[in-house]
Amino acid sequence: FGWSHFNPSITLLPERVVQFLLVKDKKKSPVTRFEMVKYIVGDLKDLFPEIIARTAEHLRYVFGFELKQLDRKHHTYILIHKLKPLEEEEDLGGDGPRLGLLMMILGLIYMKGNSVREAQVWDMLRRMGVLPSKYHFLFGYPKRLIMEEFVMCPYF
């Protein structure tokens, strides 16, 4: 048994790093180890190799991203899309941002053991600046999109 089995933070931190990286990826800016430690990992920086390995697994299996280290000296990372465009994207109107939102929600569901309360979804989205009943320039009205369109998807 490794030390991480006794530290509940090690299971939560990769989830937070994933969310941080996905937000940074939308801005198309590389992320440094320094930023991840400063904003998320904090005092557990000695566990960074294990945290980043688990983060990379989540990104690969849930979102189809590869976490690539660009610069070993400055520890700079980017996300590389590994999935080919899916035909299902047309089911969402061919809208990449909406598909990204769906992937974030499905990722949250996956990381929480395949079940989440609606409040958990809204908490995550609020942290990203997406409010349930407020018009969003990319998604329209998020609550309507999620509750009327996304729930009709067979995998939701």
TrEMBL record:
Task: Return the Pfam families for the record.
Answer: MAGE (PF01454)
**Taxonomic superkingdom:** Eukaryota
Location of the MAGE domain = 10-156
Q: What is this protein called?
A: MAGE domain-containing protein
Per the record, its GO cellular-component terms are:
nucleus
Q: Which organism is it from?
A: Spermophilus dauricus (Daurian ground squirrel)
Entries under PANTHER family matching the protein: MELANOMA-ASSOCIATED ANTIGEN F1, MELANOMA-ASSOCIATED ANTIGEN MAGE ANTIGEN
For biological process, the GO terms are:
negative regulation of transcription by RNA polymerase II
Q: Where are the transmembrane segments?
A: none
Q: Which PROSITE patterns match?
A: MAGE (PS50838)
Q: Name the InterPro entries on file.
A: MAGE, MAGE_WH1, MAGE_WH2, MHD_dom
